[in-house]
Amino acid sequence: MNYLLYNPLSNNGKGDEGKKKAIKDLNGQFPDLEEVDYTSIIFEDLAKDLQPGDNLILCGGDGTLNFFANDIKTYTVPEGVNYYLFPYGTGNDFVNDIKDKCLNLKLIEINKYLEKLPKVRVNGKETYFINNVGYGLDGMVCEVADEIRAKGKKPNYTSIAISLLRGKYERRNAKVTVDGVTKEFKEVWIAPAMNGRYYGGGMKATPEQNRLSGNLTCAVMYGQSRLHTITAFMGIFKGTHVKHTEMVEFLVGKHVHVEFDTPCALQIDGETYLDVKEYDAWYEE
């Protein structure tokens, strides 16, 4: 069987358009696609119907992929089911990260990227994540974006970030522990745990990170004036912020624990959590 699992809420509510495009583009390779609205099913029921050799095509962006990854880790899916991604989201940081390894960006086989995933614990809740856990300025960007979206408007994440850098974001002091080694940082702007290289809709936060390595990279940006930070921060889109060693440090390991001295918003693959004091992110042995 060939299933098209689509999210009508993806791409700012344009998911139905993505579904139609997927059916049109994939008709030759996957005829008789069975359309499944991801928001209206219980995944456990679908998993029971899957058979080895079935093709499950996911139509959506990073948020949809995150939900899917957690579902297949929670419910038993038979071995031999093929997973594909038909990208149709707003950010698509996952695609940005792996596109150099893909022959066809319209349909990406994703089984190997879902075999082993990191987990994060926030406020007692554990979940798998695909791309990153963003904490600090990046978490607050998602908080403000949610508020703008709730008013029926489309947020511009870059504009929000620059506005917060100019004065609305209050820096925190942080303790960052990676594989048991703790470092303290003053006036922290961001302290994400990265599984891929990209986040925030195209920011190349950790250029050397490899999502298949079994390690995470915590990228800490700290100190310096707001003007200096804005200049350095603009380089994050191409990864050139790494040159600012006076205010950027990368810590690599299997277990990342970050604690702020005052709570702040946090995001997991774009989903916002408010008033977070600390988080744990790790790869299981």
Q: Structural class given helices, strands, pairing?
A: alpha+beta
What percentage of the residues does DSSP assign to strands (E)?
A: 25-35%
Give unreliable regions as ranges. none
Overall morphology: globular
Instruction: Tell me which CATH architecture of the largest domain applies here.
Output: Sandwich
Level-1 CATH class name of the largest domain: Mainly Beta
Largest sheet: 6 strands, antiparallel, barrel
Organism: Anaeroplasma bactoclasticum
Keywords: Kinase, Transferase
Protein name: Diacylglycerol kinase family enzyme
GO molecular function: kinase activity
Description:
It holds the Pfam family DAGK_cat. Keywords: Kinase, Transferase. Residues 3-98 form the DAGKc domain. Residues 132-272 form the YegS/DAGK C-terminal domain. With 285 residues, this protein is α+β, with helices and mostly antiparallel strands. It has two domains: 2-114, Probable inorganic polyphosphate/atp-NAD kinase, domain 1 (Rossmann fold), CATH 3.40.50; 119-282, Tumour Suppressor Smad4. It is built from nine helices and 17 strands. It has helices spanning 10-13, 15-26, 43-49, 62-74, 93-98, 111-114, 137-150, 157-168, 226-233; strands at 2-6, 34-37, 55-60, 82-87, 108-109, 119-122, 125-128, 132-135, 172-178, 181-190, 193-194, 198-199, 203-204, 216-222, 248-253, 255-268, 271-282. The strands form three sheets. Strands 8-11-14-10-9-16 form a six-stranded antiparallel barrel. It has a five-stranded mixed β-sheet with strand order 2-1-3-4-5. The longest helix has 14 residues, at 137-150. The radius of gyration is 19 Å and the shape is globular. The two termini are 34 Å apart.
